[in-house]
Amino acid sequence: MIELYTSDTPNGKKITILLEEIGCDFKVTAVDLSKEEQFKPDFKKISPFGKIPVIVNHENQESVFEFGAILMYLADKYNKFYEAKDRNVINQWLMAQMGTIGPMLGQHHQFHHYNPGKSQFGEERFFKIAKRLYGELNERLSSSKYLAGNEYTIADIATWPWLARHEWHDIGLKDYKNLTRWYLDIANREAVIKGYDLLKNGSKIPKP
What is the DSSP letter of 98? Predict the structure, then answer.
């Protein structure tokens, strides 16, 4: 069994989505970030930087931290959404999410959604970057069904939960035809609907 330690964030949702897609036996253990449970000594034994998500494979007591490593570990273990022949391009789009899309949209959340009015420079900078990312993703998806090609992969699973916060971005997802098509295609998958409701509290996927 896979045990996932996480909270209800985009990085947490991408792991539950993959686990639901795989259909393996798993358990979610909630980590309360507001109480700084992620910094407790026992948790830091499996997550050195005090970050979620983390998984423990109870078949062998192996733990994996950092969501990109978790996605690769699970996809490789269950031979799903990570075809060997496509790994070069999958890895590029996965790293793009880890190094650019997630961090930049995360900063946009901080300035625009959580702390509006505190830094005009920060709000304008990250709004501009977020809007540019929407355009670049839209351009990629004009010539590719999914981010890494014609097949749904962990690159899409990694990226989609950040676009699921499009209401926070105030950019207008529906204005990006190809990105909207991709977003809805993934949003309608049964495993994505289940995985999005990470804590089983009735969370619904936002519409464009």
Answer: I
Write down the pLDDT at residue 121: 94
The domain spanning residue 118 has which CATH number?
A: 1.20.1050.10
**Averaged pLDDT score across all residues of the chain:** 96
Find the distance separating the first CA and the last CA of the chain, reported in whole Å. 35
Which residue matches tokens 């000594």? 41
Q: Which of these three, 80, 106, 121, is where a domain ends? A: 80
CATH number at residue 49: 3.40.30.10
User: For the CA atoms of 59, 60, 65, 67, what is the dihedral angle to 10 degrees?
Assistant: -40
Which residue range is the domain that position 144 belongs to? Answer: 84-194
pTM attached to this predicted model: 0.95
What whole-number percentage of the chain has pLDDT above 70?
A: 100
